[in-house]
Write a structure and sequence with these properties.
Blueprint lengths: L7 H11 L5 H17 L3 E10 L2 E11 L6 E8 L4 H17 L4 E4 L11 E5 L15 H6 L5 E10 L3 H7 L1 H5 L6 E6 L4 H15 L10 H7 L2 H7 E9 L2 E12 L2 E9 L8 H15 L4 E8 L12 E13 L1
Parallel strand pairs: 3-4, 10-11
Antiparallel strand pairs: 1-2, 2-3, 4-12, 5-12, 6-11, 6-12, 7-8, 8-9, 9-10
Helix pairs in contact: 1-2
């Protein structure tokens, strides 16, 4: 075990394991961005640990010490390992030794840099192909990690819906049509300006600051991760929610293919939550999908028990479950 100086060995391991997947190139690019984030951030001490056989990386994990986390907490991430308990035990023991050396008492992960990047492992799956921006990972990682007796498990799921009549009825047309009567409006954008990105960053920080594992990115870090160029390349529609002239929320979608949309993020600033505005955004999304011949909407990476706990599951199929963990050392 040692810390590799050249991350190309890790990326070669990712390529060997996952190149057969449709969205591998997107996943690899995101992994490279996350790795660079860790090595270049002035807030992070990044300690990768790897195992090699005949000069080839066969297992990898990293300790991510971020000064923005509470004292004594750290992330672990960039986990890749064979389905071999003894190999994982050695990797995990090395991670624990390094963590204890740095005074860490709580490990959170798997998190590849921050929760703004890819994180989680898969608990259950129907075996369908990974969608764009979904973490590509081995299903046996969940078992390996739960064998280490985490102190808590944070659960997520992805679902899809192919019929919209039920959800449109549940959301109610009035949630959308009454917006103008109360000073709200929704505008659809297919491209995002740098000014809108700054507003989205501010709304995201206000909304997600209490989320599990949250660390506040600088504006530069946020724009490097969610640059207008990157977002516009994959954006289908961005629904911007206004109160008068001010943006107070958004819902973003990406087009997976001609018939499938991915609902990525719905976000409303805390002071306007609980007023049915999320329902209005969701109604607009589903109404447009129906009108535009979209036959499938994927709801990506929803946390169980969060503000979307009332996610209506009628006619929705949960096809993947994920987990992240905390370990008390």
């Amino acid at each position: 075990m040692y810390s590799p100086d050249d991350p190309s060995a890790f990326f070669a391991l990712l390529t060997k394991k996952y190149i057969q997947h449709e969205n591998f190139e997107y996943f690899l690019k995101d992994s490279e961005i996350a790795y660079t984030f860790c090595t270049q951030s002035t807030s992070i001490t990044f300690i990768p640990i790897a195992a090699f056989e005949d000069g080839i990386c066969v297992a990898h994990i990293a300790l991510i010490l971020d000064s923005r986390l509470p004292k004594g907490e750290a992330f672990f991430g960039f986990l890749e390992v064979p389905n071999d308990a003894s190999c994982f035990d050695k990797l995990w023991d090395a991670l624990l030794r390094e963590s204890q050396h740095h005074g860490i008492t709580t490990l959170k992960g798997p998190v590849n840099g921050s929760i703004w990047h890819q994180y989680r492992c898969i608990e259950e799956t129907d075996g369908s192909e990974f969608f764009t921006a979904e973490p590509i990972t081995e299903t046996y990682y969940y078992h390996l990690l739960t064998e280490k007796r985490p102190s808590s498990e944070i659960q997520y799921f992805s679902a899809y819906r192919t019929r919209y009549s039920m959800i449109l009825t549940l959301l109610g047309a009035a949630s959308y049509t009454r917006l103008s009567l109360t000073g709200f409006s929704i505008k659809e954008a297919t491209e995002v300006s740098i000014e809108e990105m700054r507003t989205i960053a501010d709304i995201s920080k206000k909304t997600f600051h209490s989320n599990w594992g949250y660390t506040e990115l600088t504006e530069q870090e946020f724009l490097q991760l969610y640059s207008p160029q990157k977002l516009n390349a994959h954006l289908n529609s961005l629904y911007l929610l206004y109160k008068g002239e001010a943006i107070i929320g958004f819902l973003s979608t990406a087009k997976e293919n001609d018939s499938t949309l991915i609902c990525k993020t719905i976000c409303i600033v805390p002071e306007y939550q609980g007023q049915g505005l999320g329902n209005a955004l969701a109604y607009k999304l589903h109404q447009d999908a129906e009108n535009n011949g979209i036959t499938k909407i994927v709801y990506a990476l929803i946390r169980e028990g969060n503000a979307i706990k009332k996610f209506p599951k009628e006619h929705a199929v949960i096809f993947r479950k994920y987990a992240a963990f905390e370990f008390t050392l």
